[in-house]
Amino acid sequence: MSLLEAREVGKRYGPVVALESANLSVDAGEVHALLGANGAGKSTFVKILTGVIQRDGGSVELRGEPVRVSSPSQAARIGLAPVFQDPALVPDLTVAQNIRLTGLAVEEVRQRLHTMDIDIDFTEQAGDVPLPLLRMIDLARAMARDPQLLLLDEITAALPSDLAERVFAVMEDWRRRGRSVLFITHRLAEVIAMCDRATVLRDGSDVGTVIPREGGERQIVEHMLGPEAAMAEARAAEVDETAPVAAGAATGAGAITVEVSGLRVGSLAGVSFSLRAGEILGIAALEGQGQDDLFAVLAGERRAEGGELNVAGKALRPRHPYDAIRSGLVLVPADRLLALLPQRSVRENIAAPRYNRIGRWGPINPREESRRVSTAIEALQIDTRAQGQVRRLSGGNQQKVTIARWLASGFQTLLCFDPTRGIDVGTKRQIYTLLRRLADDGAAILFFSSELSEFPLVCDRVLTLFGGRITDELAGEGADEASLLRAMHGLVEEVTA
Amino acid sequence: MTSSAAVEARPRRGLNAGRLGRRHGWTVGVYVLLLLLILYWHTIPANWGSFDVQSLAIDALPLAFAAMAQSVVIISGGIDLSVGSLISLVNVVSAKYMIDMGFRNALLFGALLLLGSAAAGAFTGSLIVLTRVPDIVVTLAMLFVWAGVALEILQIPGGGAPAQYLQLGTGHWWSQWIPSGLVILLLAYAIFWLPLRWARPGLALYSIGSNRNAAYLSGVGVARTRIFAYALGGLFCGLAGLSLSATSGIGDPNAGQYYTLNSVAAAVLGGVLLVGGVGGLIGPIAAAFVVTLVKTILILKGVDQNWAQVIQGTLIIVVVMIGGLAIRQRRRT
């Protein structure tokens, strides 16, 4: 029997269509996945179902009754409890106060957390609680309402595997009790393991509902990307697999652009390596092994405490990102909004790094600027439908803009810190291809990622970092997950430094 | 994100000195500063005594209420630039009509005025919510509106109040060392703020100042809470205006000007962060006394009026800077 039935739901912001016409049917006792590339409209859909925003068209029925959800608190009353992508806890209140704020009993939530085997000090301020635990509190808060439908928007993205397991247990429990879960994730393995059915959105419309266990990953990706794109992707993937070999030959030829010796800062305890033009050097590490400090020093955000940094043969001690940028070292951070001007247009964002050259105080040459910006937009295939304000772009397109900025202003070395975090499969591939092309054109790229499967696809060489020191160097092709993890000191389980 | 290190923040039950310090350190610091100033102050006049204490309370009382009004609004994520002229308005209305009343009627009229000023605050808040014009713009406009109305009601300083009413602001109860104004201040705090602080309306107030989106997603009525914050601020403005009538004895359409920016100064000194969501009312009350006491001390020391202002401004920057440094230091460890 159908619990939730949404038909032709649409939402537009001015000329930008966030949701064209989406259908969704969730049965009672079902774990249903909602899938799609970034910008396909998943989060918009969830926000409409839970009353955060209002739909422009279409209908929603709950147990056969038409409903119009006007606010999150009303959604909770009729049995729809969401866990949103951003933590919904107020940072300056304690955990207990946050729970009372929603009108729930503190004991009830504590009980729910307890059944998930999580113990949290409720007198702690929410702002001081680590992100993964905040997600679990969010989940417990939603569970405490005992909803008919639990909506989980990318809850596992910020969770370590042991906590993700507990979320899956909750989903199992909900199904067993004849209730339903709507589950949004980018991890297709989770969908195949956990979900009964999956509805795929593309460009704001649903393009099909599949049974993941039967169709597998390939079928889902095909739906997500569309038939032609899927074929192009397959070709791109083939190219990618041969790319490292081709580049490996070139590695010897490139001149050393960045040389680091004995670098010490924060948790980084003496690191030496060199990076050549035309190569992509990977840095693989568990959370908090010094990679943040390494990138911060190279990008000029932090001063080194010891050791040397040579760029193009000259010693460099950056005191400010400006110094690093002038020497051709530029950063693409994981948090895109740290690098962008969210209220400004795509063009302005791309042109912004060009404004701060000293001695360029005169009027901006508009023709020259627009030529460079257009070239960068084209090279990166940025979707410019929502170009008026960068914050309206999808995450993948925002990340492309952060790279385009440097393309337009020129650089020698690109520092990519987890550049594909929270980006969908198709755009990830585009970014890999782009990085390879930049390297072939003579750029040096330092690449950190939290996804181990990216290293063999992207890198020529991989260094593993543990406890602030380099523990191993692997060739790109040899950097499969198992060897990487071993080199990252076999800390596969819950062991921490 | 494969590491579980972040998850190991297991609870440490029991008294946590570090956390207590982090949450209440600023307030304690302001009271220590106040105590130091008092110790210094009492060595200056030849025969310092209960009279000095009373005159300090008289001077500081309206500012303390104004600071409470401002703090409530700032905590909710707004700012109220109309505080001063709303105080003037309440001041002139009360002085104009109370002069002919008996004590009992004056009290009733005062209660009515409190309701009125709360309604005026709610009006400002509703304007902000409905028009979606930023807080600072709407309250700046209301600064002119209330000031104009106050001048319309009383062009020149005048009016008055029954003697018993004046005693409320300037007298003392039980002992010469306990000014009646101070008692009323504490009563107002206990009646109008404490019951809210730990209940849902108070939590909602802090939540919309801390993270409006998270508050909304938690089911808080954001618009309602914003209006409520301005209404509560209006109520404290009413108390400030009434206490100004009681301590000065007259109504003055320009008397409130002093309080607009000084209320912001007291709130900030008292540990209320301008970004919202952080602070309380206890700190700003003490800060109102600090601001007043510094002025008193500078006058006693015979410092030139203009230089006294420079010193007061410098003090605000220095205190807030030291507080900020202390917080950053603690975060680092």
Largest interface: A-B, 46 and 33 residues
What is the C-level CATH assignment of chain B? Mainly Alpha
Put simply, the count of helices of chain B is: 13
CATH architectural group of the largest domain in chain A? 3-Layer(aba) Sandwich
Helix tally of chain A? Answer: 17
Roughly how many Å apart are the termini of chain A? 50 Å
Approximate helicity band of chain A: 25-40%
CATH class of the largest domain in chain A: Alpha Beta
Structural class, from secondary structure content of chain B? Answer: mainly alpha
Strand line-up in the sheet with most strands of chain A? 6-7-8-3-9-10
Oligomer, anyone? heterodimer
Number of DSSP strand runs of chain A: 20
Helix content of chain B: over 70%
Q: Quote the CATH topology of chain B.
A: ABC transporter involved in vitamin B12 uptake, BtuC
Short account of what is shown:
The complex is a heterodimer of chains A (497) and B (333). By secondary structure, chain A is an alpha/beta fold.
Protein described:
The complex is a heterodimer of chains A (497) and B (333). By secondary structure, chain A is α/β, with parallel strands linked by helices. Chain A is built from 17 helices and 20 strands. Chain A folds into 2 domains: 2-225, P-loop containing nucleotide triphosphate hydrolases (Rossmann fold, 3-Layer(aba) Sandwich), CATH 3.40.50.300; 247-487, Rossmann fold (3-Layer(aba) Sandwich), CATH 3.40.50.300. In chain A, the strands form 4 sheets. A 6-stranded mixed beta sheet of chain A has the order 6-7-8-3-9-10, sandwiched between helices. A 6-stranded mixed beta sheet of chain A has the order 16-17-18-13-19-20, sandwiched between helices. Chain A has a 4-stranded antiparallel beta sheet with strand order 2-1-4-5, with helices on one face. Chain A is globular and about 70 Å long. Chain B is mainly alpha-helical and 333 residues long. Chain B has one domain (28-38, 48-332): Orthogonal Bundle (ABC transporter involved in vitamin B12 uptake, BtuC), CATH 1.10.3470. Chain B is built from 13 helices and no strands. In chain B, α3 (83-98) packs antiparallel against α4 (103-131), α6 (163-170) crosses α10 (222-248) and α11 packs across α12. The model of chain B is unreliable at 1-14 (pLDDT under 50). The A-B interface holds A 52, 71-73, 76, 82, 84, 86-93, 97-98, 100-103, 119-121, 123-125, 129-133, 158-163, 286-288, 450, 491, 494, 496-497 and B 1-13, 19, 23, 200, 203-204, 206-207, 209-211, 213-220, 277-278.
